[in-house]
Amino acid sequence: MTAQTNIVVLWSTMIAMAISTSAYAEIEMRPRPTDEKDFPEYIKYLVDVAEPRSAEARAKDAEMQKKYNNSNVVDALFVGAPGFPAGLTSQIYEEAIQHSIDNKYTLVSATVSNGKPDDTPEVVKRRMEETNAYWQQQPERYLQVKSFDDIEEAKQASKLGIIHNFQSMRPLAKDINNVEVFYKLGLRQMNFTYNIDLPDVADGGESNLDGTDEGIHEFGLQVLKEMNRLGIVADCSHSSDNTCIEMAAHSSKPVMMSHSQLMTFQDIPRNVSDKAVKAVAATDGVICVTFIGGFLNAKGEATPYDIAKHVQYIRNLVGPQATCVGPDYVYNYAETLDWILRNPKDFPIESGYATPSHMGKPGEIWGVVRELEDRYNWTKDEIEGFLGENVLRVYKANWK
Fold this sequence. Notes:
Keywords: Signal. One of its GO terms (molecular function) is metallodipeptidase activity. The chain has helices at 3-20, 39-48, 55-59, 62-67, 90-102, 121-136, 148-156, 177-184, 206-210, 218-230, 241-250, 274-281, 293-296, 304-318, 333-341, 365-374, 380-398; strands at residues 74-79, 107-113, 142-144, 160-166, 187-191, 233-235, 256-257, 286-289, 323-325. By secondary structure, it is of the alpha/beta class. Strands 1, 2, 3, 4, 5 and 6 form a six-stranded parallel β-sheet that branches. Strand 3, helix 7 and strand 4 (160-166) form a beta-alpha-beta unit. The chain is globular, with a radius of gyration of 19 Å.
């Protein structure tokens, strides 16, 4: 084995140990290191504190699963395809998918690119083709969703519906023709930029911090128009506030934040303002919350209570019809943390990346549902909207 392979095996073992022996310890806010020699010890600590709840606590959510057993449950932001990110293995990918299936998800929007510098059109096209073939090789398990009717077909056949999303327009390489190329391969949801500003496309979350936020640029507006034409949902998570607001103003279809949190509770540039939330909701759009503690609050906690607090705030601000779920969980967490630490510009510490934090799996949704029912008195119809019907409304309005 190479030294890098040994490190990956070691970190994967650490994850298994952390979850099985699980130290649900108080989260100590250790400083994020910049020296590579300090990465392994720091990553181990992040893995150790990642679990928000014990298995025993999660088991109590079975009642909620049973109650909503026939509901559509949609993950608006599932991270990964075989090989992406950070060398996601097929075995870990299948474990991730099985977790979603076990927790009654009927549709997941799977990120196939977050706009890495080396995600050229050719690289991403090949990744999509290989992922499509992977899904097709397991027709009893997956149904690639390309139209709205496919969602119900997948559910009736007890298959997991799955779509591609991009978290950045960088793979377009400023060629408007690539939007249709990727659409034909199954792209059905796309963000403008992943944290950083993309010249000619749009400003990212970093512009929320430095005061240079100019929103969407010329090419980004062209892409948005083409997305509306083809049937690709426009998404502005990770983008700047003005990008979100201008997306809502210029889109002819409902738009979304697939995995965002609120600046009101955690004032970091990765999060969104009330003004941006209102703009997205005004298009009949949706705001999906993540299960990542570093984005939820200064303590880095992501218990169902912490997640539900954001959901309830969105409900009070713009209505229950605008709420939804985008967990954003990374299953090869240690390897991804190493990638993040080595690319600080793409994953700025100011936005909460690679800081001590809970990382809630998609299954935490049932604890959140319990909180919404018991603490905030949500109705069954409102819960079903949050679980999936609200996102499906946006998909239906966009897709042909």
